[in-house]
């Protein structure tokens, strides 16, 4: 699975990838990892988040890999998503965790839709402020 900041604009362009935000919670709950809640073990939680990411990308396409690209010090920090922090804080209960995943996915998609309507280059500067030379800064 590619990290969101390595994707090209054609890979994330909302016009090329249909998405129904209202259906996202049900889709996430139906994915295999949602049924295998990892409990408290950090290694199992990281593996679960990775498996959920692979399942989401398998269902929606590579654009969806940004669902956990969190603001601040998350799993994959430096991104625009606030709904998901990291596997240690965002994996809470079997009921709440899939909802947090879906919220991260919907928030990521909303950010991409904002990017699609913004002038070139303004997307990153409006919602993210990475350090100069940050390898996690998309070029689009």
Intertermini distance = 19 Å
Determine the mean pLDDT. 84
Main beta sheet, described?
none
* Approximate helicity band: 40-55%
Number of helices, counting only DSSP H or I runs of 4 residues or more: 6
Rg for CA atoms: 14 Å
- Beta strand count: 0
Strand fraction: under 5%
List key phrases describing it.
140 residues, mainly alpha
Description:
The chain is mainly alpha-helical. The chain has one domain. The chain is 44% helix and 0% strand. Helix 2 crosses helix 5. The chain is globular. The two termini are 19 Å apart.
Q: Which secondary structure elements does this structure contain, and how are they paired or packed?
A:
Blueprint: H1 9-12, H2 24-30, H3 42-60, H4 87-90, H5 96-117, H6 122-127
Helix pairs in contact: 2-5
Summed up, what is this model?
The protein has 140 residues and is an all-alpha fold.
């Amino acid at each position: 699975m590619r990290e969101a900041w390595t994707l090209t604009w054609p890979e994330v362009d909302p016009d090329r990838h249909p998405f129904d935000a209202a259906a996202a919670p049900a889709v996430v709950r139906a994915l295999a990892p949602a049924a295998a809640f990892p409990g408290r073990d950090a290694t199992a939680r990281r593996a679960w988040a990775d498996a959920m990411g692979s399942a989401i990308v398998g269902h929606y396409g590579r654009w969806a890999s940004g669902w956990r690209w969190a603001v601040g010090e998350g799993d994959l920090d430096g991104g625009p998503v606030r709904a998901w922090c990291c596997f240690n804080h965002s994996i809470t209960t079997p009921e709440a965790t899939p909802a947090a995943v879906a919220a991260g996915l919907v928030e990521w998609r909303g950010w991409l839709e904002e990017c699609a309507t913004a002038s070139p280059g303004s997307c990153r500067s409006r919602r993210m402020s990475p350090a100069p030379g940050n390898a996690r800064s998309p070029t689009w």
